[in-house]
Amino acid sequence: MQQQGQHTVRRSASGTRRFGKAKRKGVMALAVAAAAGVLVSAPSASAGTALSYSGSVVTDVRTAATFDYAAGEVPENITANPDGSVTLSMLGSCAVCERTHGPQLMRISPSGERTVLVTGQVGEAISGNTRGSDGTVYYSVWAPGNAARNGVYKLLPDGTPQRIAALAPDSGPNGLAIDAAGRTLYIADSLKGTIWSVPVSGGSVTPWLTDGALAPVPTEALPIGANGLRFHNGALWATNFNKGTLLQIPVTATGTAGPVRQVTGGLPNIDDISFLTPRSDVVFAAQNGSSSQNGPDRVVVIYPNGTYKPILTSADGLASPSATAVRGDRLYITDGGVPEPHDPKLQTARINFPALLAGAAH
């Protein structure tokens, strides 16, 4: 990467709202525990069914930060950090306009202070990012046609980027996930229908799973297959952007891929996902419809049996929502702002646990 050095940018209160403290209230903690204990894996007999029930699953929707689309500040992925900050992947200049700005990896503190961790080269994108249990930050660089740049990087303790996984120039590195032991990094390849694996220390990538369920649809205007990726409860969970599916792939005792299970379908342009808690299999998924004019802009909650309910739409300010993250009772959403008038931002909302649990009863 073209390391610019970490630098901090302060924004006014009009551009950034405080995230608020990450401490859990007693009632909220009990609600989280209840949700974690109740909303676990279930058969997908009704997978793909939309739910209808009263009560808002999320409330208090706010804009936490706004960004400059013309400068390439197009948020794509998010990691919620233990200290209350978030790490955002910025795509750089948009695909339909002149590429004059490189992508960025940015951290935003709970008070709204912004620190640019890495600035990439013009023409490439920083797509996925994740955080190891030791605090190491990993991120994907999607550099089409550039074998010297395409792949996955990590930040060394001094902030210097180091490529730890090289991918072929026709690969599309996107979502990232780390196993529970913190030893293996998984990479969703949006173009190859493959999930790659590599030791977190770096080395040669291995095709962990290549499957038609992960492949893009070549006839789509934006042919992207495997997109979001998370390691959760002993399995990799992946989305397929073109096919509108959420998949669960067990990781066997030997580290190989088990049979692919479709958790749900019928969600065109499903992008990145997050889970309610480390124990719960309830998923919050972003549907990035306006990125390719091929579906709605929505955030949906997906239950373990495959039923789902839209909880946020464009009426709530969504504009190309690409990823979600959860910390306590707060839901975070990145908006790329692709359609005019271009409104890239980070939104937050409060999770209403009683309404969430009421939906699970259906």
DSSP strand content? 35-45%
Number of helical regions: 2
Element order, helices and strands?
EHEEEEEEEEEEEEEEEEEEEEEEEEH
Q: So what's the overall shape?
A: globular
Model regions low in confidence, pLDDT < 50 over at least 5 residues: 1-5, 12-17, 22-27, 42-46
Largest sheet properties: 5 strands, antiparallel
Instruction: Determine Rg (CA atoms, Å).
Output: 19 Å
How far apart the termini lie comes to 49 Å
- Indicate the structural class: mainly beta
The strand order across the widest sheet is 1-6-5-4-3
Question: What's the oligomerization state?
Answer: single chain
| Number of distinct beta strands | 25
Mean pLDDT: 87
State the share of residues found in helices, binned by percent: under 10%
Task: Write structural notes for this entry.
- With 362 residues, the protein is mainly β.
- Helices cover 6% and strands 41% of the residues.
- The chain has two helices and 25 strands.
- A five-stranded antiparallel β-sheet has the order 1-6-5-4-3, with no helix packed on it.
- A hairpin with a 5-residue loop joins strand 11 and strand 12.
- Helix 1 runs parallel beside helix 2.
- The protein starts with 6 loop residues before the first strand and ends with a helix.
- The N terminus is likely disordered.
List the helices and strands and how they pair.
Elements: E1 7-9, H1 26-38, E2 58-66, E3 75-80, E4 86-90, E5 104-108, E6 114-119, E7 125-131, E8 137-142, E9 151-155, E10 161-166, E11 173-178, E12 184-189, E13 194-199, E14 206-210, E15 226-232, E16 235-240, E17 245-250, E18 261-264, E19 270-275, E20 283-288, E21 297-302, E22 308-313, E23 321-327, E24 330-335, E25 345-351, H2 353-360
Antiparallel strand pairs: 1-6, 2-25, 3-4, 4-5, 5-6, 7-8, 8-9, 9-10, 11-12, 12-13, 13-14, 15-16, 16-17, 17-18, 19-20, 20-21, 21-22, 23-24, 24-25
